[in-house]
C-alpha cells in the first residue's frame, strides 16, 4: 500500500508479508520505503522459574543489526520495542510464560526503529497473541530551516537538526512511546506530534488491509 496524501503529509510506501517464517508462531517482513525489517514471534513459551512473572508473560526482545555485532544503539532499540509491545500485549493472559520477539534489520535507509516497531506489531497480530490494541510508529525530522519532514529518508535524517519518533495506540490514538534527538522548540514538538498522530491512521489502515488479506475473519 502506498502512502496517502492528507493534511499535507505523505508516508513512504509500505509493503508487508505475514507468515514469512514457517517455524515461528508469528512473523512479518515489512518494507517502509527502502528500509526493511523481519520480525519473528515465539510464545507463550515455558521459561525458567527465575525468569517467570506470576502476573504476566515475560517479553524478551532481541534486535539483530545488519552488521551482526550488538551495540549500545541496538540495546536502546530493544528497550523501546519491548516497552512499546508490553503496552500492547495482554500479558496477564499468559502468566509464568515467556514471549520472544526477534527483530532482524535487513536494510536501513532511514526510519529503522519506526519500521521495527510496526513490523513487531504485525508479527504479534500474525501470531494470534491477545492484544489490548495495535501500535503504530511514525517519525518526523526537523530540517535545517525548521520544516517538518514526515518519515524522512536516510539523507534527510543525516541532514536534520532533530528527529522525533512517536508511537500511538489504535483505540484513542494516545501516545505510547516518544523518543527524540536534537534540539527543537516546544511548538515544533507539538506540531510534529499532531502530524504524526494524523499519519498513524495511514499505518493502522495498512495493518487492517494486511490482516484482511491474510485472514478470513477481521
Provide mean pLDDT, rounded.
Answer: 86
* Main sheet: strands, sense, barrel: 5 strands, mixed
Strands across the major sheet, in which order? Answer: 1-2-3-5-4
Question: How many strand elements?
Answer: 9
Structural class: alpha+beta
Oligomer class: single chain
Strand content: 25-35%
Helical fraction equals: 25-40%
- Radius of gyration over alpha carbons? 17 Å
Distance between the termini: 18 Å
Describe this protein's structure.
The chain has 218 residues and is of the alpha+beta class. 31% of the residues lie in helices and 32% in strands. It contains four helices and nine strands; from the N terminus they run ββββαβαββαββα. The protein has helices at 72-88, 112-127, 154-158, 186-214, and strands at residues 14-18, 26-32, 35-46, 58-64, 97-107, 135-142, 148-150, 162-169, 175-182. Strands 1-2-3-5-4 form a five-stranded mixed sheet. Strands 7-6-8-9 form a four-stranded antiparallel sheet, sandwiched between helices.
Give a quick rundown of the structure.
This protein is an alpha+beta fold and 218 residues long. The protein has helices spanning 72-88, 112-127, 154-158, 186-214, and strands spanning 14-18, 26-32, 35-46, 58-64, 97-107, 135-142, 148-150, 162-169, 175-182. The two termini are 18 Å apart.
